[in-house]
Automatic annotation (TrEMBL):
Protein name per UniProt: Ketosynthase family 3 (KS3) domain-containing protein
Gene Ontology annotations of biological process type: DIM/DIP cell wall layer assembly; fatty acid biosynthetic process
GO molecular function, one term: 3-oxoacyl-[acyl-carrier-protein] synthase activity
UniProt-listed Gene3D superfamilies: 3.40.47.10
Length: 479
């Protein structure tokens, strides 16, 4: 393959409503909102109390990932007791990494040369809600055990899959997994590794549950990115990863799309508050990514935006994009995957990247759901943007290029520019059959017993474990 850039040669995902990438793409193209709406009976069976169900602020919709309690411990060399101590975000990503390598035609444990791992995860709610007891932390000067800290996910993945390149955790809030992709691409470009796995994992709820609506969260469980009725985001669980390789090293057609440019920036103090995104930082990242890709805004047919459904955040993002795309000769489609699958926090960026890569590959832009009319503060005219409110064919002739953004609370922004790997009509490989894991429900009962012991007499702790809610913080007000 003669293209310059970094090729996406494999991908895998466990996302709301989708056990794999193929199901995820089918859902997106069909315009399906995969947020589960729970009945009162389902929530009671999961331990949600009648007092919460009767609370008018309680939204009976959630981001619980069915089967999250299943894990093939034996396949990865763990006993059930060992696996029960591991963050489910780690367990999910181990399986995703294995599938992604298989999808790339690679066999874990039989890889030549250094292979890098770059990952991001969310707060370990499983530990906080189900496992925590003071003796687990040991002395005050000891670090959190490896099964519970985000630092250890790339190290665990490298160890279990026999990968010898750089293994680095990236923590940048909702930008984490797309920052991981940028770091992986740069590592390949610098010849620090010959293959890289990049992605993220996030578990928002460890049991079926809804949430209490508050500032920044959707009061009805629906994300309406850029829309006049937008009232907030909602969180969900999932994991996804991509396998990257230098284009010059690709010897067959195992390519979904090619990363042409990427950039990571921070707003510094150029914004209204720590939890508020800034125009300048996002614009800097988009402009730098386009420059490194040697492309103009008019070359971009679609932008997969951060688009979390908060009026302030969406307005700032569109304003920043408009400052870069101002004067573009063509209309650019704009959309967000979050109205379809929820906000995956640390895994959100790579979920958007996979969507954009498949859109570039197939020449189809899936609908950005729940959009009827732009919010008064969202100015689409500056950059000649049009919201992709329905699934449609690629809007521009010639080579297909897309941008992908992820914005983290605290101001870190990542932007990636990707394009199709070869002229339309080039034969593409059939996907390899994935390794079928033997899933074991090995930890759910011990976890419930432990939760009951540690939460005995603490109604607040028990309610949080059942509902998946957290105390109010800066996160509520940012995007």
């Amino acid at each position: 393959m003669s293209d310059d850039g970094i090729a996406i040669v494999g991908m895998a995902a466990r996302l709301p409503g989708a056990a794999d990438v193929a199901a995820y793409w089918d859902n997106l193209c069909a315009g399906i909102d995969t947020m589960h709406r729970y009945s009162a009976a389902e929530l009671r069976a999961a331990g949600v109390g009648d007092d919460l169900l009767a609370d008018p602020r309680y939204v009976p919709a959630g981001g619980y990932l069915p089967g999250i309690e299943d894990f093939d411990a034996e396949f990865f060399g763990y006993t059930p007791a060992e696996a029960a101590e591991i963050d489910p975000q780690h367990r999910l990503f181990l399986e995703v990494a294995w599938h992604a390598l298989q999808d790339a035609g690679e066999q874990p444990g039989r890889l030549d040369g250094p292979v890098g791992v770059f990952t991001g995860t969310s707060v370990n709610r499983y530990f906080l809600r189900h496992l925590y007891r003071p003796e687990l932390l040991g002395a005050a000067d000891e670090p959190m055990p490896p099964g519970h800290a985000p630092d250890y996910l790339p190290l665990r993945t490298a160890y279990k899959l026999g990968l010898t390149g750089p293994a680095v955790a990236t923590q940048a809030a909702c930008a984490s997994s797309l920052v991981a992709v940028c770091l992986a691409a740069q590592s390949l470009l610098d010849f620090r590794c010959d293959l890289a796995i990049a992605g993220g994992s996030s578990v928002a709820a460890t049991t079926p549950s809804g949430y209490l609506a508050r500032a920044g969260l959707s009061p009805d469980g629906t994300i309406r990115a850029f829309d006049a009725k937008a009232q907030g985001t909602r969180y969900a669980s999932g994991a996804a990863g991509v396998v990257l390789k230098r284009c010059e090293d690709v010897t067959d057609d195992r390519v979904y799309a090619v990363l042409r440019g990427w950039a990571v920036s921070n707003d510094g103090a150029r914004r209204g508050g720590f939890a508020v995104p800034g125009v300048a930082g996002l614009a800097d990242a988009v402009a730098e990514a386009l420059a490194t890709a040697d492309l103009l805004p008019a070359d971009i047919g679609y932008v997969e935006a951060h688009g979390s459904g908060t009026p302030l955040g969406d307005a700032i993002e569109v304003r920043a994009l408009g400052s870069v795309f101002a004067g573009a000769a063509r209309t650019c489609l704009l959309g967000s995957v979050k109205p379809s699958i929820g906000n995956l926090d640390a895994a959100a960026g790579v979920a958007g990247l996979i969507k954009a890569a498949l859109a570039v590959r197939d020449g189809v832009v899936p609908a950005s759901l729940h959009f009827d009319a732009p919010h008064p503060d969202v100015d689409l005219s500056a950059g000649r943007f049009e919201i992709a409110a329905d699934t449609r064919e690629w809007p521009t002739p010639g080579p297909r290029y897309a941008g992908v953004s992820a914005i983290g609370l605290g101001g870190t922004t990542a932007h990636v520019v990707l394009g199709e790997p070869a002229p339309a009509g080039t034969p593409r490989r059939a996907p390899l059959p994935p390794q079928q894991f033997h899933r074991q429900r090995h930890w759910i009962e011990p976890v419930r017993r432990q939760r009951d012991r540690t939460a005995a007499g603490d109604d607040t702790q028990r309610d949080r474990a059942a509902t998946g809610t957290e105390p109010r913080s800066e996160v509520d007000d940012d995007r």
